[in-house]
Amino acid sequence: MGGRHGWNSGELRWRITALLGVGAAALALILTLIGTLPGDDGTAGTTPDGDKVHGTPATPAGRPAPDVGWGFTHTQFSADEGGPAAVARVRDRLKGSRPAQNQALMGWGADNPEPVQGRYDFTALDRRVDFMRASGSTPVITLCCAPDWMKGGRPGTTDWSRTSLERAPRPEHYADFAALAATVAKRYPDVRHFLVWNEFKGFWNDGRARWDHEGYTRMYNLVYAALKKVDPDIMVGGPYLVMDSLDPRAPEASKTFTGPWGAMDQRVLDSFTYWNRHKAGADFVVVDGSSYTNDDELLPDEFAATDKFTAVSRWVREQSGNLPLWWAEYYVEPADGDDERKGWSEQRRVAVQAAGMIALAKGGVSSAFYWNPEKEQGADCPGCLWTPTGSAGGGAPLPMYDLLSRFAAAFPPGTRQATVPVAADDVPNVRVLASERTVLVVNTLDRPISAQVDGKRFDLQAYGVKWLTR
Length: 470
Description:
By secondary structure, the chain is an alpha/beta fold. The chain is built from 10 helices and 18 strands. It is 29% helix and 19% strand. It has an 8-stranded parallel barrel with strand order 1-2-3-4-7-11-12-13, surrounded by 6 helices. A 3-stranded antiparallel β-sheet has the order 8-10-9. The chain has a 3-stranded antiparallel β-sheet with strand order 14-15-18, covered by helices on one side. Helix 3 links the parallel strand 2 and strand 3. The longest helix is centred in the N-terminal third of the chain and has 18 residues. The N terminus is likely disordered.
């Protein structure tokens, strides 16, 4: 993974092998040395007019909705780079389905946007925004992470190591981060939705062994005010907390918010409550998390564990007064020690992912982003939306893309869910979501079944996913 891109992450995004850790540290050292050569003030390749409008943004059509529907997040490698034909395949396919697209401000494909205070480098982020524009999707930016000088680092240098990238701005630089957010909003006036920070990174209070929700909320409120000053119609959301669940016997486990899937971490609930009470405002609420516990336990199994998404979503909406709810990331398959999710067959992966999306929708979620684990090249890309665009003939759709695009089209924000009959003997074996026009059915068993749903009898292969038209 290239240093400029930051860490390619998933739910356990900071896990990495010792070898890669040493390599990343060595790369960071080299970059630091290069950035501090005599006569180099770190401003090479930067510009002072970061808020100059980039490219040809689409003209906003009135006040945007606080919902954007189902989409995906760009990670370290994506379809903005690669062979022209492969890039065009993905771009043109996205034009047809138009799922919302999310990109981080710094890391996961984007360079340090402000290496020196008041000097900007948006080259990489410009390219990602251009791709989102060209593919006709609703663009979203996650305002994370922060330039090194806001975190105590040397101006003009970028340390892409884990300990640096996940560090939050120092309190004296919260206002500087808010100013950077405003600069981004001015540069891309067609980006009307912003998530503030990512998973409370760097906001852990060691002394109290809990999240520093006070510090995050102070920064959030400054960012919220700065964005609204640029354009009152910009949609802003937080707190992007990881909704961790635990073994119910854990000392930090909630005594009241529990289910067959485990118990919620009370420290997370407390942090959400604080932000919710002290926020300056929010157009939508953002959380993320996994169906499995912190110990990677799928309780009681991988499909039933997704019920956590429904329970958490309903709790968050109730606490927030039914603000639109976004899940910035959602995971159903535990990662290995290298943060790879490749132990399941693609058929099983898609089936459990579909069950997770059904559970989110039943919880009232109106927007959610699939963390797309793209690779630069090669044929093997478990869970990816398309084959890597760095490979010859890349950019071909994969099964996860079919699920995401069809789900986004069938269940957009505001879809009224319908109740359909399911044969009694099929109820334990299938997951179902229906609207007035469409029914999605998932076989949770590793064997073929014959199911009867909505008055129709049909066969489902092992971990089969079937779409019915009503």
